[in-house]
């Protein structure tokens, strides 16, 4: 019987030894390491957490305890995946102490580390072992020392916040190598020196205000997106971006014999410091330069005279032949917007280049016809007939369309939409534009615009197949989408309360919408202008497709009486009818749409919150259990930067698309890696 009782007694004895040793170590906080017996019995991640607590939590705020059923994955601020710590979020825990080395840095599966708003002091330890880290928040502490160079090796990092500390020294130039950064906050430290030429394409949140930076701000496409507040309280910063001229005087061009007598000592001082100062040119050099300039002027005059004579002779001899040739029409083609974009972004938009050519060619034809005589005859020819776009086959005629049975689908700010079933069993969607709202648009402009918009073809756009106008009646005909609108999917019927979509569905829909918007912006000088969930339809494979795009520009916005949700989707700068909508207005509407996806809340119910508070609201609305917090945080961050009040601070749509695809790749990588956890 004795051999059978020994194992049952062993476990309580071992646990008692562990608890006693842990209790004794807590009373003496002079070491962060535990005796080998504990290290051998506890999981390595829990040892790292307890070691961190022993130095960083001198006030014993963290209730980490070893008991009979201890589970470090359930400790405050800790999230695990497959038994490994992936998130440490100890924000505003009142921690006091230091960030000891070889503690949290041993959590090699860590994705998110936040020690925000505590009282941690001392230098930041070597973080290079955290090669999986994506988000690092050490802001609002009292860390000292220079910029932690180990951060530069964290190539998966997307968010970095070191603001409100006492860090000094230079901002390293190699920070430009962190290509995935979309948020970089270094404000209110004591950094000095010049600002590196940051040009990460994803960077949409940026602040270096409140430091001691000097010199000209590098003019890069990325830094140019931010307003002066991102660089404020750096008295010695200058440059085009903050509208502050840099001192143009350079010691290389100062003369020691300047007119002011005070300049002589200055020149001597510069020479004594090793700065080369050029002497003024001698009279002999001046004479040579004058001779050279005079010779150049004479030669240029002879050349111009010769060219004029040749041109006159050619014109006289060939005038009769030229006059017999038909006159060529000169016209301006629509401008094509070309955004700076990262390498490979075109791979996601395979039809952009082809469509640019088609749009330009079609616009040329339209303008050429307008220059020919008798424009009224052309108007009579097309007005009153059904015009098919982009060379579409004429599958139906106007008479069939008028005979079709119609079912009301909805009323919008520009017109009313119907489902029409033709006698040949073809189903189309007909948008009947409100004549009173589109009266400001002439027949010629309407025709030109629909000809151009009708060329747009993308898998995430509902194509315009044809249009019609006559005597104030204007119709736009689209393909019919069988699975309803995104509005119905998100909000359900009036009798049911729909739950927010799973984050994977939100991500898929967001990517589809971003692809469609990016295509519109890059294919031509067009914008959607009326993006909202009711204008996103679900195709046969439940792909999200944009409709009603590029139509609102034809209407008089001052006469619109919009519902609160439609008004909330509009960018602040466009809510006055005098302000013109831009591509950045579409980006704002996309941000509102993304929040609507994540929360299931109507746009008019979205609170006005700072970006850092938005995630808490999203989590509360979704009743999130923490399992999808990483993905929610990333998507909420995208929504927040898209819906910033200042249009200059919003990213371009292709950048938003890249951020969403980056989140998608990150989620896929995390799922793949989770199978390798032990």
Automatic annotation (TrEMBL):
Subcellular location: Membrane
Membrane topology, as annotated: Single-pass membrane protein
Signal peptide positions (record): 1-32
Transmembrane segments annotated in the record for this chain: 292-314
GO molecular function list: ATP binding; protein kinase activity
Renumbered residue ranges of the record's region Disordered: 253-282
Keywords: Leucine-rich repeat, Membrane, Phosphoprotein, Repeat, Signal, Transmembrane, Transmembrane helix
Domain Protein kinase: 403-668
Polar residues bias locations: 256-274
Highest rank taxon of the organism: Eukaryota
PANTHER family, alphabetized: LEUCINE-RICH REPEAT RECEPTOR-LIKE PROTEIN KINASE PXC1 (PTHR48007), PROTEIN KINASE DOMAIN-CONTAINING PROTEIN (PTHR48007:SF50)
Record-given protein name: Protein kinase domain-containing protein
Origin species: Dipteronia dyeriana
